[in-house]
Specification:
- This is Cd(2+)-exporting ATPase.
- It contains 23 helices and 29 strands.
- Helix 9 runs antiparallel to helix 11.
- The chain has a seven-stranded mixed β-sheet with strand order 17-29-28-27-18-25-26, with helices on both faces.
- It is elongated and about 120 Å long.
- With 807 residues, it is of the alpha+beta class.
- The protein starts with 6 loop residues before the first strand and ends with a helix.
- It has five domains: 139 residues, Alpha-Beta Plaits (2-Layer Sandwich); 236 residues, no CATH class; 90 residues, Calcium-transporting ATPase, cytoplasmic transduction domain A (Distorted Sandwich), CATH 2.70.150.10; 117 residues, HAD superfamily/HAD-like (Rossmann fold); 119 residues, Calcium-transporting ATPase, cytoplasmic domain N.
- Helix content is 42%, strand content 18%.
């Protein structure tokens, strides 16, 4: 490590992390460590991502490990090696126990301070297979100037498969013998056996005509069998200084029930709490697995073709230029070009398109496509770290670092809510017996204990991150990559939709549809002159002129060539000065346009005017086709609440207005240079309400500044374009504008479900807190309002995942 401080991004798997509140505490705690610029913990993928700015990396890692062990002793940091896999020497022993999502819930009772930076994407660098390069997408939609350049070490690699799935692993070896639930078959059997034995002993104690110490002893045995692990964990929490986590509250409440002689209730409450936790853990794991299955596009192997044979290797081992064989039914593991074979490929995992695509020699294919019938040999064009699958998985996994305002609200809410409830509970236990005549201390203590059990905000802290992550997963399944919960939520507030024209609303495929020569020229000579003038241009219009000419062009005929930005081309051809471009170019060079030569309906396309030695030679009409779903998209956006649709284009006014009329756009601004488009967005931004969002949709090639300026920048058909992925907040992976409408539907549905959970959880808790305070609610209701509400909230969140197929 050199003496200069550099920003470095590191990633770790947190084995044993299966609790949103634990993730929140670790995130808050680690972000306070000196040298840590930001920290984000994704409890869905069990990943800790942090950016550091220090030459004391190893010391920071040691402090991080100590902090995590202090907060959650059963959670272990496991580094990843350069291949994106867990290091073998760091794996936990097989056999084991996985904590459920809320089991380790410390319910927001310990937060290591305020002001945590939630990493809004300014440091969103990624490391691929050990290669360091700057982030795809290092802007957050609002601050576009301070993108830190990041370097990575071997830890900072994404695992796109293993981290996503809920593995069982042991906590026994790292000092966590506390409250755990196995959600594997063996673990569930053990838990069910324990609960069954405890329930039988409690039932015997209930029915036997034994009183006094004998009855107490039987109930105590039942209690220890059913909830001994909870009590043990409560003691550990107390030692760690977390006196108000869920274990402590449950232990206090049930021991309190024993203290006032309610033995059956003490056992029963612990029994139903454990049952609730078991079901809740299963539901959370199922939800997490559903989310990871949505993104289960990572190929497991590649069939590498060598001179002697074909062998299975890891996709990371394949190099550019290698040949790989894809058999029917296999995923294409790397991007490349087909060199042999013909087949149909299913692209739905990447683009959401249901119709298979035909590929043959010369066709480009992307990792994540599935070969359906033929045998294909593909020449690899990108290493796995640069492939489409890597980029998609990386974007979706990093999305959790950019939290939505609702998530931030819940984090802040739980920070203040819990201490307030604890203080109220304390007052409830102490004040009434002192001021009310005849009030029993034991009665009010019981009410206070009920109050405390109800207070845990687990339902919110668990279900809301799941909701946003699920929404992002559902969108990716529909061919829309959303880079963060903040952008998913912002889609709900879009009031202005601004579009580029070429390649966004139109297909960007140009064809010559009319040639109108002046008197001294023929159609052939006019087209030849224009094709020669546009010989070195990369613009689609230039390509269409060369294609229409159809003959080989001789470079030696073009002596001088220069592009005039926003106007056209100036070139010396066969010793004559040729101008080819728009009407502004003719005007600038004082060439008189012959109105008679502009016959035909020139408002149907782009007009290229040609002049030779200062004399007007004629014009060529080039047309671009509007996308099939463009008009429907504009209409749907208006129904979804977009108040104004605007098109910004560099094309001539006549063509732009014709397209605008055809699509039903509210406003069309034409003949704009890239800086004018940026100015238009700035003007719009200055005149709108703060809560209204501006959406800009471009093709991601020359729209980078505008994509960065808009509140939500959308790159169209940008999967293959690094520029698009880097600049945009949302990437639509195919060329269909209508996917934008799908994304907004998913955003609205996600918001609806998240707010249903917020209102339901807080509503139920408010009712039961009131009932508890008045002595109407017992421990039974308290357990329902905690565990039951969380379970229902998680089950509700799973509906988010179905949105892609429903819309």
């Amino acid at each position: 490590m050199d003496a200069l401080k550099r920003n470095e991004r590191h990633e770790w798997i947190l084995e044993g992390l299966d609790c949103a509140n634990c993730a929140l505490k670790i995130e808050n705690g680690v972000s306070k460590i000196e040298g840590v610029l930001d920290c984000s913990v994704n409890f869905v993928t069990k990943t800790l991502t942090m950016t550091t700015n220090s030459d004391q990396q190893e010391e920071i890692f040691r402090q991080t490990e100590r902090k995590i062990h202090r907060l959650e002793p059963h959670v272990r940091m496991v580094a990843k090696n350069a291949g994106g896999r867990l290091r073998e020497d760091s794996r936990n022993d097989a056999g084991a126990v996985e904590t459920s999502c809320a089991e380790d819930c410390a319910c927001g009772h310990e937060h290591d301070g305020e002001g945590h930076n939630h990493n809004d994407g300014k440091h969103a660098a990624h490391s691929h297979g050990g290669h360091s390069h700057e982030a795809h997408g290092a802007h957050d939609g609002h601050d576009h100037g301070n993108h830190a350049h990041m370097h990575h070490n071997h830890h900072a690699v994404h695992d796109h498969g293993e981290a996503d799935h809920a593995h069982s692993h042991s906590h026994g070896d790292d000092g966590h013998a506390g409250h755990t639930h196995d959600h594997g078959t063996d673990g569930m059997r053990r838990m069910i056996a324990r609960l069954s034995i405890g329930a039988i002993i409690a039932a015997v104690a209930w029915w036997l005509p034994v009183e006094g110490v004998g009855k107490l002893a039987l109930f105590l045995v039942a209690y220890i069998i059913v909830g001994g692990d909870v009590v043990l964990q409560a003691v550990r929490s107390l030692v760690r200084g977390m006196a108000f986590d869920e274990y402590f509250l449950m232990t206090l409440a049930t021991v309190g029930a024993f203290a006032i002689g309610e033995y059956p209730e003490g056992v029963a409450v612990m029994f139903f709490y454990q049952i609730g936790e078991l079901f809740q853990g299963i539901a959370v794991n199922r939800s997490r697995k559903s989310i990871s299955d949505l993104m289960d596009i990572r190929p497991d192997y590649a069939n590498l073709k060598t001179a002697e044979s074909v062998r299975k290797v890891s996709p990371e081992e394949v190099r550019v230029g290698d040949l790989i064989v894809i058999k029917p039914g296999e995923k294409i593991p790397l991007d490349g070009k087909v060199v042999e074979g013909k087949s149909h490929v299913d692209t739905s995992a990447l683009t959401g398109e249901s119709v298979p695509r035909t590929v043959e020699p010369g066709s480009s294919v992307m990792s994540g496509f599935v070969n359906t019938n033929g045998l294909l040999t593909v020449e690899v064009s990108k290493e796995f770290s640069e492939s489409a699958v890597s980029k998609i998985l990386e974007l979706v996994q990093n999305a959790s670092a950019k939290k939505a305002p609702t998530e931030k609200f819940i984090t802040k809410f739980s920070r203040y809510y819990t201490p307030v409830v604890v203080i109220v509970a304390l007052l409830l236990a102490v004040v009434p017996p002192l001021v009310m005549p005849g009030a029993q201390f034991s009665d009010w203590l019981y009410r206070a204990l009920v109050f405390l059990v109800i207070s845990c905000p687990c339902a919110l802290v668990v279900s809301i991150p799941l909701g946003f992550f699920g929404g992002i997963g559902a969108a990716s399944r529909s061919g829309v990559l959303i880079k963060g919960g903040n952008y998913l939520e912002a889609l709900n507030h879009v009031k202005y939709a601004v579009f580029d024209k070429t390649g966004t609303l139109t297909k960007g495929v140009f064809h010559v549809t009319g040639i109108y020569p002046a008197e001294s020229f023929t159609k052939e000579s006019l087209l030849e002159t224009a094709a020669l003038a546009e010989m070195h241009s990369t613009h689609p219009i230039a390509a269409s002129l060369r294609e229409a000419y159809g003959h080989e062009l001789q470079p030696e005929r073009v002596q001088q060539y220069s592009e005039i930005s926003g106007h056209g081309i100036q070139a010396q051809i066969d010793g004559r000065l040729v101008l080819a471009g728009n009407a502004k170019l003719m005007e600038r060079e004082h060439v008189a346009l012959n109105a008679g030569q502009q016959a035909g309906s020139l408002d149907e396309g782009t007009v290229v005017h040609v002049a030779v030695d200062g004399t007007y030679a004629g014009c060529i009409l080039i047309s671009d086709e509007v996308k099939e779903d463009a008009a429907k998209t504009i209409a749907s956006l208006k129904k979804l609440g977009v108040v104004k649709t605007i098109m910004l284009t560099g094309d001539n006014r006549t063509v732009a207005e014709a397209v605008g009329r055809q699509l039903g756009l509210d406003e069309v601004r034409a003949e704009l240079l890239p800086q004018h488009k940026a100015e238009a967005i700035e003007q719009l931004s200055a005149s709108k309400k703060t809560s209204d969002k501006i959406l800009f949709v471009g093709d991601g090639i020359n729209d980078t500044p505008v994509l960065a300026l808009a509140d939500v920048g959308v790159a169209m058909g940008g999967l293959g374009s690094d520029a698009a992925i880097e600049a945009a907040d949302i990437v639509i992976m195919n060329d269909e504008p209508s996917r934008l409408v799908t994304a907004i539907h998913i955003a609205q549905r996600t918001r609806r479900i998240v707010w249903q959970n917020i209102i339901f959880a807080l509503g139920v808790k408010a009712v039961f807190l009131t009932l508890g305070a008045f002595g109407i609610a017992t421990m039974w209701e308290a357990v329902f309002s905690d565990v039951g509400v969380t379970l229902l909230a998680v089950l509700n969140v799973m509906r988010v995942l179905k949105v892609g197929s429903e819309e």
